[in-house]
UniProtKB/TrEMBL annotation:
Its EC number is 6.3.3.2. One of its GO terms (molecular function) is ATP binding. It comes from Pseudoalteromonas tunicata D2. Substrate binds at residues 49, 54. Its cofactor is Mg(2+). This is 5-formyltetrahydrofolate cyclo-ligase. It is an enzyme of class 6 (ligase). Belongs to the 5-formyltetrahydrofolate cyclo-ligase family. Keywords: ATP-binding, Ligase, Magnesium, Metal-binding, Nucleotide-binding. SUPFAM superfamilies: NagB/RpiA/CoA transferase-like (SSF100950). NCBIfam families: MTHFS_bact (TIGR02727). ATP binds at residues 3-7, 134-142.
Length: 193
């Protein structure tokens, strides 16, 4: 199956989840990950706001804020096309809608965190396989942004993909630019490679 076909199929599965199933999954994800993240104190954590049927992050955001972690959201880089920046996010952060209709913090350069200073980055994904391969929406934003991190084998940030269990497929066709993940969390499991 081609990448676009997998993308369409898995997005349909993800979007078919009921509101109750989505809420329960978000609560389970929070429970699953908060225990896993106990060793990290006052960490700098990047995550994303849910869009297009993605696994909900609002419960996780609230729990991480309650644990005194500093949170950062992706912002489309204004000058480097196809790259992301990670900007500080708090409950009262001014927000805007980017060109894809996704909420992001209104750009404030003084609140950008360099990627190497982040402890953890949670990434969205459309599909993943049993080897840690990740299929995104097709824009390549995370792959481009994380390429240097993988080429130089930085010790941090830890990159964790978030997905519903229904987004798992047997095998993804990969391209040279695809960045595999060492950890993917679903509400039910933590897959690590």
């Amino acid at each position: 199956m081609k990448r676009d076909e997998i993308r369409d199929l898995v997005r349909k599965k993800r979007n078919a989840l009921t509101q109750t199933e989505q809420k329960n999954a978000a609560k389970q994800l929070k429970v699953n990950l908060i225990q896993q993240l106990k060793p990290y104190k006052n960490a700098k954590i990047a995550l994303y706001l849910t869009n297009d049927g993605e696994l909900g992050t609002s419960e996780l955001i609230q729990a991480l804020q309650a644990e005194n972690h500093s949170l950062f959201l992706p912002v489309i880089h204004p000058f480097s096309k196809g790259y992301l920046l990670f900007q500080k996010y708090e409950k009262n952060s001014p927000m805007t809608t980017n060109r894809y209709g996704i909420f992001e913090p209104k750009l404030n350069c003084s609140q950008i965190c360099p990627i190497e200073q982040l402890d953890i980055i949670f990434t969205p994904l459309v599909a993943f396989d049993e080897k840690g391969n990740r299929l995104g929406m097709g824009g390549g934003f995370y792959d481009r942004t994380l390429a240097k991190y993988y080429q130089e084998q930085w010790q941090k940030p830890i990159v964790i993909g978030l997905a519903h269990e229904c987004q798992k497929v047997a095998l993804l066709p990969c391209e040279s630019w695809d960045i595999p993940l060492k950890w993917i969390a679903t509400p039910e499991f933590n897959y690590r490679w």
